[in-house]
Structure formats: structure tokens, C-alpha cells
Amino acid sequence: MRLKKTLLLFENDFQRRTRDNDEDIPLLRDEEIDGDDGPQTPSSQQFNVIRRVYHQDVLNKDADYHLPEKPLSYSAKKAVQSCGFGDCLFNSLPIIKWLPAYKPKTDLIGDLVAGATTAVMHIPQGMAYALLAQVPPIIGLYMAFFPVLVYVVFGTSPHVSMGTFAVACLMAGKVVTEHAAHEVSVNGTDIAEATLQMTSQYSHVQVLSTLTFAVGLIQIMMWVLRLGAVSTLLSEPLVSGFTTAASLHVLASQVKDLFGIRLPKLGSNYKVVLTVIEVFKNMSNLNWAALIISFITCLVISLNNELLKPWVSKRSRVPVPIELLAIVIGTLVSKFVDLKTNYGLSLVGTIPTGLPVPEVPPMQLLPDIALDAFTITMVTYTISMSMSLIFAAKEKYEVDANQELLALGASNMFGAFFTCAPMCASLSRSYIQYQAGGKTGITSVVSGVLILCVLLWVGPFFELLPRCVLASIIAVSLKGMFMQVTELAKFWRLSKLDALVWLATFLTTVLIDIDIGLGAGLLASVGALFVRSQRPYTCLLGRVLDTDLYLDIKRYRAADELPGVKIFHYCGGLNFASKNLFRATLFRKIGYLKETDEGNLTNKSESYEWDSTLGRKINCVIIDATALSYVDAPGIKSLLSAQQELVSSHITVLLAGANGPVLEMIEKYNSLESEQLQVETFPTVHDAVVYYKMLEIKKEPTITIAT
């Protein structure tokens, strides 16, 4: 049976409610009318709604409208209840939730395989990325152990692989280079024995540990202030452009090891450009042995990634540990061929065994590196959260942004006492860990145990490893970030502003420096937001057939304007920044702003030339405020000014569909200002249209403002 529901308003009730508004909601009745048999869909059902034309104040009374209020005592009580010691401890230690519910039968095998796989990747990447931070390779292995175990306790994402990350280590290396006492060779153990002056000079490791402590401290402060959403300040185009450009900085820092040449110390600005110039100047000093080893290593790893890895992934969850094989084979070749003596290759150097003794970072350095620490905090937190959200969406679980701040902050502060660099999620390791079957934080525990074995017994084996092998591993691992340059075409098709943000961030970062590029990207993002706020969606609406639907007349051919009525739709906020744009766009759309023959605006009153004949063409202007998100006092003044201009030309102005906060703001404005915006409100555009037609029928000259 086809169902046609008709909502009828009794005529006697309608007449009574028209005279007296003190009753409650009108009585409604549903009627079932016979129709054609067959399955019914929502689009095939018909609803005839018969009701009175509502003024907003009448609707507020009928619907029992009231302003939501939350007393201070209620808010304070709610805050105290939500911060109970038990709940606070339970929420701050996610391990209390997931560890008792751990299922060894279903999760243990996957965690063991993924943990071993991740540990195999940690070894070469940790040693290689530590060089970017201007510290010995052993520091990278410390980062795969100490902070990772702390993250297991506090973190909410079991699938991300925390530890070293190329961009984070590069940014840390820049700070180390600027504030370290002197350049210390990472081939020996003298890095821990640099001459210290408590006022201004610190060793590389001390600068790095202080920077890591500062990053962790900032993250803890952000957790206390519940600023987990701050990562949204870095937009996708900004992050993409920044990481792509930073990867070029990473590659430039490894050129000297890839080619086996010595480069002079370069300034922090224009480093990529100056590095390219210096490389060409020193081509005559090229070490062919280093170049050949680098080429072979890059070729083998690339062939594995492009050909062998896809083939293996279809048959096994465990990938080929090509990076680990590269450093093992490189070490063995160096040992038996004596690459340092015979060919002059730079080696990794002394790698101590055992665990480091915890040391307190020099806190006197904190003020000098605070700004750099904040920059690294934003970058590492944004990248880590992005990776966490990707896996959370795949596995259908939630990631607490504020809890991640606590996890990263606690991990970094703990790692700072063991000379670790700022921690970040690794894109490549995280995907491998996920594909290998990692389910819980036990994966990181297994990985940490294997790294501990390397620290205690295996470390010295890699002392003869050529640095060009590590540089090759870094260079190949950057492919994913290099390929992000293709996203520029996507951003260009989606939004020209996003593409400009990407270009501004990328070019500034590449040509000048990392921190300046990030600042330029932030400014470009804020500028893009401002430009968008100055270009809101506006249009004229027309009625579709004989319905109560009003659509954009430029996009819908069936939408026809009503004779003598202009319906102006405005989408966005009406505030001090957009008030002039709103006024000008309104007058231009309805034809009240007259354009000269040359296409320029001629001033008559302030900045406009009015069409004096418009009052004979248009009798009513309805401003559709259904998409008006916010209005402030200057915005209301602009609305009042526009209304007065139109009323002076004998044009009725109605404001329809305004939401509660907008109406409340207008009411507050009227209570404070002498020149008030007296409004007669309507909940929908159709109410305003029908009301205006009733006025025309009665032929009573009335000037009204309705929302």
C-alpha cells in the first residue's frame, strides 16, 4: 500500500492560535490514504505539510525555546568528577586497559613476528638517522629502546613504530650544529669528552639531550592544557610540502658520504643550494670507491623495494631485511678488504657496548633552544598523529590526541636522560610493522628486547661499517617523501590556494631553511584561511516548481526567481573582517550596486553608486541566513546599514533562517546599542516568502526585518 501522510492543522485551532499565542504546539493528525501497491522508498513517499506561517518569536514560544545555561558550580562539579584519581590514572595509563585483555592465542604470534621485523629495521635506520642528528650511530639504537618502552605504557596507537625519523633527526641536527661547543668526529668516543663551559659551550650529546627534554616538556604542558587538537594547525598541504622539502635537506646532508668528499661547514640558510655548489666544486676529489659502494647499495635496495618486496609480500608477512643485509655485508667487506686503509673510506667508528649511564641534560641551554624545540614538537606530533589516525581508521579504534601528547612527552623526557633525540613515528617502519601482523604494544616490547641484545653484545660488530652504506640507506628511504611532489597536481585540481600553500612551504624550505620554511607554511595557511573567509559562497535563490525548496539559480535551471523578490544566500561568518564584503556582495547580487560602462564602481555615497530605479523593479529582499555561522557587532552594524539603505528605496528586507546563536547575538546588540536592529523573524525562507505575499495581498505598506 502506498502511504501518503497528510499533517493537518485544524482550522478552528489555526484561527484561535492566530489570535492568541498562549497555547502549546498545534494539534496534528496523520491520515492514511490508499494508494498503489508496491514497495515504498523514502523518495517515493509524499508528505503534505499544512501549517501556519511562523514568525520566529511565535515558534520560539510554541517550541519552548530557552537559552542553554551551565552554572559555574555545575561546570566545576563536572570537572572534579571527571578528574578523579582513579579515572585519571586509568585514562592516563592505557596499558591498564589493553594488557589484561591481551589474547596470546590470537595476538602473540603476530606481535612476535612484527616485533622481530621492526627491530631488524630499527638497526640500520637508527644508526643512519643518528648521523643526521650529528651524534654517534649508537644514539639511534638507544632511541629504539628507551623511549619506545615508555610509549608502550602511555600510547594509544599500537600500530605505529616510534623511534628515529629522518626529518626529526635532521631538525635536531641543525640545533646541535648551532649550539654545540665544537664539531666532534662521530668516529671516536671523544664526543662525550668535549670541553664544557657551563655558560655557553656544550657537547653534541648534551645539546641533543637538552633539546629532547625541551620537546618532551612542551608536549607535557600541551597535555596539561588539553591542546591535542593543535596538530590541525598544520594542514595537509603544509605537511606534504614541508616533508618533501625536508627530504631534500636530508639528501643534501648525505651527499658528502655518498660521494666520499669533504665539504666545508656551511651556514644554516641556503644549505641545499650551497651544498650543490660545493659538490660540483669538489668533484675532482671524488672517492670512487665510496661512489661505487653507494651506487651498488642504492641499486640493490631499490630493486628489492620495487620488485622483490611486492612479490614476497604476497607470500609472507615478513619482508626481506635488505637494509640489515646491506650493513652486515658492508661491514664484512670493509673488514676483509680494509676499505679505510686501502681506499680512504670513512667508517662508523667505535660503538660502545652496554647501556648508557643516565645524565641530567644541562638546563641552562633550555632558553636558547626553546623556539627550535617548539618547532620540532609541532612537526613530530603532527606526523605521529597522522600515522596513528591512519591505522585507527583501518582497525576501527580511537586515538586520544591529548593522551598521545602525554605519551610522546613522557617518552622524550625519559629518553633525554639517555642522550636520545626527539622521537617520532616512522612511516616506513609503521607500515612494515602493520603488514607483519602487529596487534598490540607487545610488538614494541619484542622489538626493544632484540635491540637490547644488540646494545649489549652485537654493537661493536658494526664499527667497520662504511658511512656511505648508511648514507645509501637514508637516500633510498627518502623515495616516499620525494614522491609527495606528485601531490601538488592533486592540490592544484582541488584548490589553487592549497597548491600555493604547498609551493610556498616547499620553495621556502628548500631554498632557505627548515624552520623558516615551516614558518612560511604557517603564514601561507593562515593567509589561505583569510582569503577563503573573504570569498564566501553567495548566490541568488529561486523557487523550484511549486515546492518550498529554494536553490541557486545559476546551478539549477528549474529554480526560478519570484517576481519582485530577490533571495540572497550567504554562507560563512559575518564579522569585522567580512562586513564590507557582505554589504558589497549583497548590493551587487540584487542589482543595487550599479556598474559603470567601464566596469568600475563609481562613488556616490561612500563607495557605491546606487541604481535609483531598483525600487520599481524589486519590492522585497530576503537574506537567507541558514548558512550564517557567526555574527559579531560590526557584522550586525553592516546588516543594519544594508537594511537602512534598502528601506530608503522602499524595499522590504527580511532575514530568514538565522540560527539561535545569531538571534541571541542580535538581541544582545540591541540591548547595548542605541541604534537597534528591530527584527521580525522567520524560521525558513518559505515562511518569509509566504509572509511577504500575504503583505502584498493585504496591500499594507509595512517595512519589516525578519530572520
UniProtKB/TrEMBL annotation:
Gene3D superfamilies: STAS domain
Membrane-topology descriptor: Multi-pass membrane protein
Transmembrane segments: 131-154, 205-225, 288-308, 320-337, 369-393, 405-428, 440-457, 464-482, 502-531
Pfam family, one: STAS
UniProt superkingdom: Eukaryota
Location of the protein in the cell: Membrane
GO CC term (a single one): membrane
PROSITE patterns: STAS
GO BP, one annotated term: transmembrane transport
Keywords carried by this UniProt record: Membrane, Transmembrane, Transmembrane helix
Keyword Membrane among UniProt keywords: yes
Annotated STAS domain residues: 555-692
Main localization, broad class: membrane
PANTHER family, per database record: SULFATE TRANSPORTER
NCBIfam families, per database record: sulP
The protein, known as: STAS domain-containing protein
Organism: Pieris macdunnoughi
Native organism taxonomy: Eukaryota, Metazoa, Ecdysozoa, Arthropoda, Hexapoda
